[in-house]
Design a protein that fits this description.
Elements lengths: L4 H13 L2 H8 L3 H15 L4 E4 L2 E4 L1 H31 L2 E6 L9 H10 L4 E6 L16 E6 L7 E9 L1 E6 L10 E2 L7 E4 L6 H6 L2 H4 L5 E5 L3 H9 L5 E4 L1 H5 L5 E7 L4 E8 L6 H15 L25
Parallel strand pairs: 3-4, 3-5, 8-12, 9-10
Antiparallel strand pairs: 1-2, 5-13, 6-13, 7-11, 7-12
Length: 321
């Protein structure tokens, strides 16, 4: 019997959420579509997988039995996809690198030119990170490396070659009452509305809302943006303020946006990240060295196959060539 993995993902989401509405939102499908998928899976298997009630959806004994295997089956399929995509990328000599919207010029033309010098015949495919995927495509094997401004604690979940450290700054519309200040205290921003990224971004949403620094104080959400352009537009329109890498003030300056340092806000660790358990390939290592040579301005130490590399103190401005 052949079963579409999409049906298994739908089944797993309903099991975890306990209701169709939340599961449908998580999967970005309508509730009728999700209902149809669950019915289709039940028809294929010839069993009822859920007991339906006003309280939600509870797995039947048959559903619980299937749920015990679904996670490992889907994880195995993801592993197979990653291996397949990695093999295909190696065959065509392409390194796939993710980047954060608004700061792609951190990696300049010099970076790519340096990489092709180190790896003749190879090319770099750049992909903007997806805010609806907390792994930016690393988990599915769609990319090999990604550039992140992240909390240092993320090094516990991923391998990382650290490029430096960079402050997070506040982005405000120029007419904001705090925009004239040279430096803003974090406590002065606690009651401000913020432009948030989607809930699906997971820990990234909390990080760019500075939830840890807030000490349990709730965040006022003025708007939710789905990409970097929407985020910046919402700030310009006064729907909220936000935190961003200091790089944006240099690489994405606007007359209608004021970027200001924030006292009391921890800096980001800037680095190239890849999955734990994945060996660093020669192409990946070459790209790390190219970034260190063109972004940090020095070659830096050799890149280990696993774990994190020593950090530089700061990432200086890089002009696009």
């Amino acid at each position: 019997m052949d079963v579409d993995t999409r049906l298994l993902r739908s089944f797993a989401a309903v099991c975890e959420e306990g209701q169709l509405t939340a599961a449908a939102a998580r999967l970005f499908v309508s509730q009728p579509t999700l209902t149809k998928q669950i019915r289709q899976l039940e028809s294929l298997l010839g069993v009822e997988l859920f007991e339906r009630s006003r309280k939600g959806m509870a797995p039947t004994p048959a559903g619980r039995a299937l749920a015990e295997y679904t996670g490992s089956m889907l994880a195995g399929w993801e592993d197979a996809l990653r291996a397949t995509r990695a093999a295909a990328a190696e065959q065509v000599s392409t390194l796939r690198v993710g980047f954060e919207g608004g700061i792609i010029n951190v990696m300049s033309r010099r970076t790519v030119a340096d990489f092709t010098r180190r790896m003749p015949g190879w090319q770099v495919e750049l992909r903007q990170n997806n805010w609806f995927d907390p792994t930016s495509g690393l988990a599915t094997g769609e990319i090999d490396l990604t550039l992140w401004h992240a909390p240092p604690s993320l090094s516990e979940q991923y391998n990382v070659a650290v490029l430096g450290e960079e402050p997070r700054c506040a982005a405000l519309p120029v007419g904001h009452r705090l925009a004239r200040r040279a430096v803003i205290d974090f406590t002065d921003l606690l009651d401000e509305p913020f432009v948030a990224i989607p809930h699906e971004a997971g820990h990234w949403r909390d990080y760019w809302l500075a939830v840890r620094e807030r000490g349990g104080r709730p965040v006022r959400i003025g708007a939710v943006a789905h990409n970097a352009d929407e985020w910046l537009t919402a700030v310009v329109c006064g729907q909220g303020i936000g935190f961003a890498p200091e790089t944006m003030s240099r690489l994405a300056p606007r007359e209608d946006v004021a970027y200001r340092p924030v006292r009391g806000l921890s800096p980001s660790q800037v680095g190239l990240y890849w999955l734990k358990g994945r060996e660093l390939t020669p192409a990946m290592a070459a790209f790390v060295r190219s970034c260190r040579a063109t972004i940090v301005g020095q070659a830096g130490p050799e890149v280990p196959a696993r774990g994190s590399a020593p950090a530089a103190r700061a990432v200086p401005p890089v002009r696009a060539v």
